[in-house]
């Protein structure tokens, strides 16, 4: 089974057409939001891969990918996006994506990406930037790679200026568990303070992503789902 997660009907149709052409026997399920995708994933154990739009009504940037990788790590997630910059693609792969399909991709490129992921490989489009501009991005990718999904989500919380109690609520864990994660994360990154962790977090997450996460948190607060 293939899960297509995208809130744009036309692109869902385009992906559905390619999947049906390349994998005629494969069932296809669609979701317009991250919440709908999560429900589908929880109720089906035969999903071969998912395609995941980076911009959904309830998810922005890499937050959806990180949640899917944290909670459904065994299912390959292929990011689809209008953003085709090398920096964004490399960050998505560092966060655990199995592939990255820009929405401007040809039908053949989409098919190639799907087949690669089905073989257990990864796929990205050819790089656009010169090799000598990669140093900072490689360093950032290394930092992402050495952290667990939970630790990355805690870093996101630091970016939003959240207290440990609020981060614990978002993750569904205790405040002591967050403190334990932080201690392990400091050790792994070779730092010793929350301030140093925040500086690193600012390198990993863009301003747009931080703003989107703050908006999601504000919405939780307004609906009464945030902790006191």
Describe the biggest sheet? 5 strands, parallel
Any idea what the CATH superfamily of the largest domain is called? Response regulator
Mean pLDDT score: 83
Sheet-strand content, in percent, reads: 5-15%
Cα(first) to Cα(last) distance is 41 Å
Share of helix, binned: 55-70%
Tally the structural domains. Answer: 2
Number of helices: 11
Order of helices and strands: EHEHEEEHEHEHHHHHHH
User: Using only CA atoms, what is the Rg?
Assistant: 18 Å
Stated plainly, the CATH topology of the largest domain is called Rossmann fold
Strands, count: 7
Low-confidence stretches: 213-218, 220-228
**What is the overall silhouette?**
globular
Assigned CATH architecture of the largest domain: 3-Layer(aba) Sandwich
Order of strands, main sheet, comes to 2-1-3-6-7
Structural class by sheet pairing and helices? alpha/beta
The CATH C-level name of the largest domain is: Alpha Beta
Summarize the structure.
With 228 residues, the protein is α/β, with parallel strands linked by helices. Helix content is 55%, strand content 11%.
Question: How would you characterize this protein structure?
Answer:
The protein is α/β, with parallel strands linked by helices and 228 residues long. It folds into 2 domains: 2-118, Rossmann fold, CATH 3.40.50; 146-222, Arc Repressor Mutant, subunit A (Orthogonal Bundle). The protein is 55% helix and 11% strand. It has 11 helices and 7 strands. It has helices spanning 9-22, 34-43, 63-71, 86-94, 107-118, 135-145, 149-159, 164-171, 175-189, 194-204, 207-222; strands at residues 2-5, 28-31, 49-53, 55-56, 59-60, 77-81, 99-102. The strands form 2 sheets. The protein has a 5-stranded parallel sheet with strand order 2-1-3-6-7, sandwiched between helices. Strands 4-5 form a two-stranded antiparallel ribbon. Helix 1 (9-22) packs across helix 5 (107-118) and helix 7 (149-159) crosses helix 10. The relative contact order is 0.11.
């Amino acid at each position: 089974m293939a899960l297509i997660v995208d809130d744009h009907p036309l692109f869902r149709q385009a992906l559905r057409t390619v999947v049906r052409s390349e994998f005629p026997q494969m069932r296809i399920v669609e979701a317009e939001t991250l919440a709908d995708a999560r429900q589908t994933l929880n109720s089906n154990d035969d999903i071969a891969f998912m395609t995941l739009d980076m911009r959904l009504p309830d998810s922005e940037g890499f937050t959806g990918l990180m949640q899917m990788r944290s909670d459904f790590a065994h299912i390959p997630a292929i990011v689809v996006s209008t953003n085709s910059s090398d920096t964004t693609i490399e960050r998505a792969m560092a966060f655990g994506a199995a592939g990255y399909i820009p929405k401007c991709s040809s039908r053949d490129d989409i098919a190639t990406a799907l087949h690669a992921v089905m073989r257990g490989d990864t796929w990205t489009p050819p790089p656009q930037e010169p090799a000598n501009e990669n140093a900072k991005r490689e360093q950032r990718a290394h930092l992402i790679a050495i952290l667990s999904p939970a630790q990355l989500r805690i870093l996101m919380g630091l970016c939003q200026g959240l207290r440990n109690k609020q981060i614990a609520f978002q993750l569904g864990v205790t405040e002591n568990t967050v403190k334990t994660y932080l201690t392990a994360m400091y050790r792994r990154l070779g730092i010793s303070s929350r301030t140093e962790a925040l500086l690193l977090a600012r390198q990993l997450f863009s301003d747009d992503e931080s703003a989107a996460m703050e908006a999601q948190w504000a919405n939780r607060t307004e609906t009464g789902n945030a902790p006191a």
